[in-house]
Amino acid sequence: MSDSLSKTSASSEQIAPRPSCEPPRLFERNQYGLICDGAINYIYNEDGTINWRKMVKTEFLVPHKQVFEKMGKPVPETIANLDDKEILILLGGLKDLAAVRGFTSCTYRVTVPNSECVVAVCQIEWLPNYETSGRVIMSSGIGDASINNTTGFGRLYLGPFAENRAFVRCVRQFLRINIISQEEISEMATEAAEDMSTTLLKETVTKYGVSFEAIKTKLIEEKVEGAENYKSLADIPRYKQFELIERIKRKAAARTTVPPPSSK
């Protein structure tokens, strides 16, 4: 009897957790700004930059239901063999990437134009790494939430919705992730927004004489996933359409800028 009790007691001592104030792992960064303890498996582009898109964990990627419903197709159960435009990234995935990339601050500026709309600007100060030549970089993103682009309980939490949208846009743009976030879509506003962005892009390329072929070639050169399959401006993701509009306008403005007179 005593032997049995002593064996049980010894077994309990072996499996009993020991209190500790030490973390199981220290996340240290090397001189390149990368976590260097083997915990992170970085994936690189051909030019040596980090491919943050491919570092998104699959658990944070889901099929874009609205895309398939719009085409009258069944929604896939997994993201296997789907193009980026057919996928959504969840908020947790971008939080995970932001933590891996490393930042020192994340701040918000919130305004309320009226009782039915909230606008938030997210600003993140990123840790320096080899991609930024050791410089601290600031990035920002704008997110809005209103009764016109939210549904269900989202209409009761316009502030948090606007903040989340600002955050995901800030992270996506800085890390060059060409997948729209689930936070950025609205079942009632997506189709109208897509039509609007396409219309604005069409007006811009017409005004400045830019061809669809030139845009497609440029996007392929920039390795935008799926660009080689674009057949019209409408195939370009909405976030990319707005980006192209601004780029075209900036380029046109630079061409028309008159250089200052020479001091000689």
Descriptive overview:
The strands form two sheets. Strands 3-4-5 form a three-stranded antiparallel β-sheet. The termini are far apart. 37% of the residues lie in helices and 14% in strands. About 4% of the residues have low confidence. By secondary structure, the protein is of the alpha+beta class.
What is shown here, in short?
This protein is an alpha+beta fold and 264 residues long.
Key attributes of the depicted protein:
2 domains, 3-stranded antiparallel beta sheet, two-stranded antiparallel sheet, 7 helices, alpha+beta
User: How many domains is the backbone divided into?
Assistant: 2
> Could you state the order of secondary-structure elements as H and E?
HEHEHEEEHHHH
Give the biggest sheet: 3 strands, antiparallel
Report the average pLDDT across residues. 85
Secondary structure tally, helices: 7
What is the terminal-to-terminal distance?
106 Å
Q: Indicate the radius of gyration in whole angstroms.
A: 24 Å
The main sheet orders its strands as: 3-4-5
How much of the sequence lies in strands comes to 5-15%
Helical content class: 25-40%
Low-confidence stretches: 4-13
Based on secondary structure, the structural category is alpha+beta
Number of strands: 5
What's the shape?
globular
